[in-house]
Amino acid sequence: MTRSVRSVHLRFLSFVCAMATTSGSPFAYHVFLSFRGEDTRKTFTDHLYTALVQAGFQTFRDDDSIERGKYLNLELPKAIEQSRISIVVLSENYASSTWCLDELVTILECNRTHGNDVLPVFHDVEPSEVRKREGSFEKAFERYENEVEEEDDHERRMELAKRVVGWKAALRQVAALTGMVLKNQADGHESKFIKKIVNVVGDKVKRTELSVAPHLIGIDLRAGNINSWLRDESNDVGIVAICGIGGIGKTTIAKYLYNLNFERFEGSSFLASVREVSEQPDGLVRLQRQLLSDILKGKKEKIYNADQGIVRIKEALRCRKVLVVLDDVDQVDQLDAVLGMPDWLYSGSKIIITTRRKQLLKASEVDTVHEVARMHRTESLELFSWYAFGQDHPIEGYMDYSKRVVHYCDGLPLALQVLGSSLSGKSIDVWESALEKLEAIPEGEILKKLKISYDSLQDDHDKNLYLDIACFFVGKDKDWTITILDGCGFFTKIGIHNLIDRCLLRVGQRDNKLWMPHLIQDMGREIVRLESTKEPGKRSRLWQKEAFNVLREKTVRIIYLMSTSMVLVGICLN
Ligand SMILES: *[C@@H]1O[C@H](CO)[C@@H](O)[C@H](O)[C@H]1NC(C)=O
């Protein structure tokens, strides 16, 4: 082609072969051990630690009686966050260490915000003693309360009082979790007891939950009665569709329900972004493979085409009660190809589909359609405030502005999160200009509203990174993506951090994969498409079919590496 006179730089952004080297888990440790050194350092905890390590669990042991520098102070919360599960060994003198109590507060905080598991182990104390603060726990708190009274400095006094309140709450909370009590279990035999703990850890570490965004305001209500449907013990097989426009939170609801319930089933699988994956070469087969591998718990089945896949799936689904979520479906054939006929499903199996297309479902055998409602005004303001101000209501002077922005978000959680994050920490001027832009956008044009967040990204570098990720790297490992893009001269780490800050990107906590809400990804691709609607060759990025079409027209030398899961994902044409 004559157009090839224009100098063409091809930059291959990614090849799957690197995938094999990436690590699966973002957790640095399996277990974080919190304990009172004075009580159990040389005895119980030491044995537990050894048993955990011997069972192959990476274990972080924190000893409150060791002197620490500031450095470690900062490291500890990180270690807790990066541990799959925290074991808190509650012993006689646990409460007499403020170090232990502070650590417990951090552990429970991580439990709330990141969903890390907590396993309390009651070593020669009863849960009720901890909960009601009796015995040695009572004594320790008497001392703290005296300290508060005797503190002359008002500020320090308030601070200490606040800490004491936090510790009490933490003890109540931890005692309410399902824990293990030495006296009741294994007849008080420590070594048997330790074996049990190791088993419990093993079960928890193997489970694979999905990461969801924090601040799930009103989610129970928004999930309707799907949760009770999943929990009913009937043998009915059922398919429920969660419907609604982009950004309303369908995927979040589906993940939330999945996390709450997958353990009730013999097998479970969450197939993300079905629409997108099935458009890729071999996409349906990949979905089938994932489904099988999830349900057969990691056993790899060789599938070479979709027909063969369906046969295997039929075999696997026929004899197990499963929970399967198909996220973002837009064609009936995606359903057919992945799941086949509903009458294959074993009794009690449940299927959840999320889709933007309500019409789609008429044609298929869906039992119930659940339409996700928009958030109402108070919920909207609360969600928005978490993202804009880090608390559940606007800070002083911003109430009016916040209410106006919230009004334009139409009760869509995604818009509230994205606009909230992009206005966070900004001056009134910036808020006013954002409002002006919002006012000019016709109702219902959600993509345009979201684009305000893209426009407000600090520099071109972040914008480009966002577009690259939207076009090529959604679903890819974060560290791997950083390696590739850093090689192209990006400052990817900081950029990714900025995008996460703006809610334009998330990183799966357990699998370390990059993830964008579908609508945010669509927005990126739309921005690229609009660079040249008629001539794909003039766009800054090409993906999937169009990339191949353009390449076919050009006389350029292409070297690409192939792998089973993906061929070539990205090219930059300058
Ligand atoms: C907190 O930990 C408990 C016990 O491990 C777990 O059941 C619960 O799901 C965790 N909380 C969250 C929000 O994940």
Automatic annotation (TrEMBL):
GO terms for biological process: defense response; signal transduction. Coiled coil: none annotated. GO terms for molecular function: ADP binding; NAD+ nucleosidase activity, cyclic ADP-ribose generating. InterPro entries: Apaf_helical, Disease_R_plants, NB-ARC, P-loop_NTPase, TIR_dom, Toll_tir_struct_dom_sf, WH_DNA-bd_sf, WHD_ROQ1-like. SMART domains: TIR. It is an enzyme of class 3 (hydrolase). The chain crosses the membrane at residues 12-32. Residues 27-205 form the TIR domain. It comes from the Eukaryota. Keywords: Leucine-rich repeat, Membrane, NAD, Plant defense, Repeat, Transmembrane, Transmembrane helix. The keyword Transmembrane helix applies. Its EC number is 3.2.2.6. It catalyses: NAD(+) + H2O = ADP-D-ribose + nicotinamide + H(+). This is ADP-ribosyl cyclase/cyclic ADP-ribose hydrolase. The lineage of its organism: Eukaryota, Viridiplantae, Streptophyta, Embryophyta, Tracheophyta.
